[in-house]
Every structure is written in C-alpha cells, then in structure tokens.
What does this fold into?
Amino acid sequence: MESRIVASLDLTDKEKLLALSETIGKQVFAIKINWPTILSAGKSIIGELSSYSKVICDFKLADIPNTIKLIAKQIADQDPYAIICHPFVGSDSLKELVSTGIRTIGVVAMSNDGASEHLNKHWKELLSDVKGAGAYGIIAAGNNYTLLKEISSQKEHLKVFSPGVGAQGGSAAESIKNGSDYIIVGRAIYDSADPVSEIKKINSEIQ
Amino acid sequence: MESRIVASLDLTDKEKLLALSETIGKQVFAIKINWPTILSAGKSIIGELSSYSKVICDFKLADIPNTIKLIAKQIADQDPYAIICHPFVGSDSLKELVSTGIRTIGVVAMSNDGASEHLNKHWKELLSDVKGAGAYGIIAAGNNYTLLKEISSQKEHLKVFSPGVGAQGGSAAESIKNGSDYIIVGRAIYDSADPVSEIKKINSEIQ
It folds into this structure.
C-alpha cells in the first residue's frame, strides 16, 4: 500500500538532506521542501531529490501572476511534482500557476495559531477558488479536526494534504480519519534518531 | 533629495542585474528582488546587490513562524534592508519575522486584479496587525488611488510602499499624492532602453 506520508524536510545541510532522502524516499508519498532548503542548497536540489521521491515545492506562493510565472519558469526543468500556493492573493495568480502545467496545491487552512485570525475563516471561498482553477489539491491543517472534517467533506476531486501533524500537535491517524489524503510530517521525521522506524510507525498507525 | 523609487528588478540574468544595479543603485531608494532572481542567482546576490543599494527581499513570506525563522536565518548574513511578508497568515508569523531584527514590510493591499477578491477587503485588519507587530512598513497598491488614500490616512509611523506603478497602470505622481512614501517600479525600469533617464523622469514627475 502506498504511503500517505509527505516528509517535510526543512534541512539546510545538503548532504544530510540527500542522505536522509535516499534512506526514506521510497517509504513516503513525497518529499516536501521549502525556501530554507532552496536558499541553502540552490534550486538544483529539487532535481537531485527527484531521483529519490516525488518533490513538492512548498513555496507558499502569494504574488501577482507575472511573478508566479517567472518563479514557475525558473524551476520547470527541475521536475517538481507539485507547488504549493496561496489562493488568498487572488484567482488570477492561482490560475496562472495551474496554467504552467505543474500540479497546484492551494492553501485553505494552516496549522499555526495565527491562522485562525484571518486565513482559516475564509476557507470556503478559498476552496471554491481552488476548485474553479482546476488545481490538484489543497492544504488543510491536520491539528484542527473539526475544521479538517468540514473542509474534506467538500473537497470533491482535490487531494487533501495536512500539515500540523507531529511537532505541531496533530495525530496522523486522526487526520486521516477526518479526511486527509496525505499527512505532512516534518520534525518528527528529520529530528528522529531513526527516521525509518518513525515512518513505519506512522504508516502502521494510519492503516 | 532622496529618491522615492524602489526599483523592482525581477531579472534572472545575474550579469545584467549587477550591471543595471551598479548603474542605477545610487539613484533609487532601494532595489527590490524576488524569488525568480534568488532561484537563478542564489542567495548571495542579496549581498552582492547591497554594495550598490539597499536591498529589499520581496519574498511575500506566508508561512508558519518556524519556517519564517529558518528563512530569515538563511539570509541574515546577506545584509537585506527589509523583507516583505503577508500578515494574512497570522500575527504569530508576522511577529516572528519582526523579532529577527530585519525590517518587516507587511502586505495589506496588492495590485493584481484578483487581490480585490479576498486580500484587499481585509486591509484594515491586516494594517492593524502590522502596527501591532512593530513592523517597518506596508505594501499598498499604487494602482487603486481611493484605496491607497484610505490606507495611507491610517498608516501612522509605517512607510508605505506602492507597487502597480508603470506596467500595471498606476502613475508615480498620483501614488505619491495619495499617500505612498515609496513607489515600486519594475518593468518600466528594467525593460527600458535607458533606465537612468526613466528614473530621472519618474523622480522629477514625483517632485
């Protein structure tokens, strides 16, 4: 059975990141990287990691369409599996990213405490935009089960990726139960002394 | 008199960017770069450009506090003048960026058409958060004068940076008249056959 874990590897030590990715690449659905890794290792790390696993670029893009286009162009040759963006800045930017042909994942609910102040209040409008743009998936926090369940019930064809599991308090099994297709796990994997065992533990917890 | 232009140089050709920055660096308030440039030239471009002008990193950060911290750490040694972030993801993330000591500019209104769907409707709450976090400035679009005027009237000590001038339809003089402290000009400068004359023209238009 395919793993439903996305390993969020926010490492800035390139050798450590490559070694860890080689070790766990086949046991997770995908590896997710963010700007700290790009800043440290350069964009070619996307292509390098692609040999071990699918790579999701968690760029949280939140800019005007022209900038979105320029960013997507810069990484097109690195074979990213998907890119994460913020529909909050407008459907024109969202559609621009979808039009590049890279799978687009739109954020509709985040896992930090402050997300409840603005962003998470508007998940319905954001979800509607993501559907309308023909995107691939959504980000819906895995540490607020009530919200996650409500969002997932309206997801239609979209894949639901849930951060906030592990260090941020969410449980993998509960997230899946409440509608996540994939759970995003970061520190619980890369800070573990034995990441393979940690992944196996989570995989069996989910099943 | 100090220029009130921020040159938004979304170039991905490093040599061209450095040459242009050397040419115009002393005639603008700052140079702003975004992810396309970082992806192409690497983070060291921030430090290299710092020898020609102040550098504003237009990263539109929109992530959880831990990721914000990791990103800021990665560029701390590059001497950025300021970083742009999105308060809509929550005041915890905003405060995290302010706490790094780098001048923080929060987006309260953008210039793309889609910005009116969600983001720009919430400028009052976002402005209040930016004030509360002790940030340095705000982004308020320069192609919607009515909105810009209203936002600027409530800016207090914050510096107002306005994109949307030039290629996106806004006028430099009108933006300043309606409350911008600095106008952000991109394509009108870097696509110009004579960027120095273009800057002089805008500087005199403002005065």
Remarks:
- Chain A touches chain B through 50 residues (CB under 8 Å).
- The first strand of chain A starts at residue 5 and ends at 8.
- Chain A has ten helices and eight strands.
- The mean pLDDT of chain A is 96.
